[in-house]
Design goal:
mainly alpha
Length: 84
């Protein structure tokens, strides 16, 4: 029980750190990314933390090839969130 609670708290802390990053917010607020977040399959995979389903979502795959979104993603360094 406490393991799950600790994992949830760690995830909340990570999300708080990510939301302070301007580059992450720019990606998250991009209209194309907002459309992806409305997709029920993507929402379910995110809720279940199913990285395989997230990565294999066709809409996500299309976004990964979008030059504008790729430029936004290239500005995000995941290590920054682990070290803050």
């Amino acid at each position: 029980m406490f393991g799950k609670m600790k994992d949830m708290m760690d995830q909340m802390k990570m999300m708080q750190k990510m939301m302070t990053d301007e580059n992450f917010r720019n990606l998250l607020n991009h209209p194309k990314f907002q459309e992806l977040l409305k997709d029920p399959d993507f929402q379910a995979a995110a809720k279940n933390q199913d990285m395989t389903k997230l990565a294999s979502n066709p809409k996500f795959s299309v976004l990964m090839t979008d030059p504008e979104l790729r430029a936004l993603m290239s500005k995000i360094n995941p290590q920054d969130f682990l070290n803050k």
